[in-house]
Request: fold
Amino acid sequence: MSESAIFKNKSKLSPRYLPEELPHRQAQIQQIVHVFSDAPKDPDRFPLNVLQVIGAAGIGKTSTVLRSFKNLEELFGKSRLTLKSVYINMKLQGGNKFAIYRFLLEHIAPELPAQGLSAEEMLRFLLQYLRQNSQYALIIIDEIDYMIKSNKDTGIIYDLTRLNEYELDKPCNVKGVIFIARSMEFYSKLDAAELSTLGRVPIEFHPYTMQQVSDILESRAAEAFNPKAIGSDVIDKVASITTSAEVNSDVRYALDLLLYAGNLAESDGSGRVMLDHVRKVHGQIHPSITTEEIEQLSKNHLVSLMALVRALRSKKKPYVGLKDVRLYASELADQLGMKKIDIEDYLDDLNARKLVDIKSLKAIGLHGASLAELEPILMRKFKGEK
Ligand SMILES: Nc1ncnc2c1ncn2[C@@H]1O[C@H](COP(=O)(O)OP(=O)(O)OP(=O)(O)O)[C@@H](O)[C@H]1O
Ligand SMILES: [Mg+2]
Reply:
């Protein structure tokens, strides 16, 4: 680790880090753990439970579920039972039901070959494997609303919520399936059978208050910053920005602000994060695009997005046609030594991710972010990657 006056450990602000403590989500963790807490006593008789977690962006849904499942793994461990939890993020994994089940099988039963199996066989093998090895599993399907919007393969919900019906006379060793979504909008895309197995009562997460965001950032900052490098004035400022209507309590944005403000303080040698660092960074980055969202994009996504940015800039209009974007995309692909890509698919996907706004093939623009905000972020990403 490099010496820094500001940071003790920068990676503790990264979206990939799962903190040990999640202030103001203890009740939700308990609620989830409680559903399964009797399972270790008599696991084979314990039924399959389906849960849903619903709430806005960046308010701790994924972290809370992951932390709860870690606690449950320990709880099972205390009874000398093996519980495996598998996390599948639809935005990252993408793909169809087949790819998802293969991923499941590879995680739970790595020694079984998934090649050449049908989707149904994969699930059957998975259940058999768990039973034969006396192991239990929990499955997390994250960003389910994104999946339903982008490929409509709702069969996954139907299959996974009925895993206990595959072999009715035998116990089902998958004890829980938990779906995470930003809102309940996706219900309207499901049919009656899917809706009924999903269970209609979701666990709803509400946005944090300003005081709660302050507490959360206090605990995150204690892990990431040197104690003298950041004060409660800065934390409170970030908390107040974060709970504004524009950011809507998205803690991911708050962590980005802390990270970038810390970087700025580091590079100008001030030895301490100041309110001005926060203000400056908040003026440059934008809540509608977080670093995590950019990191989730493939190279082809980035080229498509950058091509759109260039087309918008050169036309000086809020919307441009697909033809224009194509032109810039092939130029960019040339520059980067990449093969030509079919940008239409990527733009569609960026539309589903709410980064791009497609009104029609003749009117494509940006969704929330403005050019001035998006361009520097993309440029940084491009320079970093090449
Ligand atoms: N209570 C908390 N304590 C500490 N960190 C938190 C807390 N809530 C959220 N975070 C942090 O904020 C970031 C966003 O949280 P998380 O990914 O769990 O949100 P989410 O609700 O799943 O958002 P999305 O809908 O965008 O997926 C993560 O880096 C997480 O560690
Ligand atoms: Mg999440």
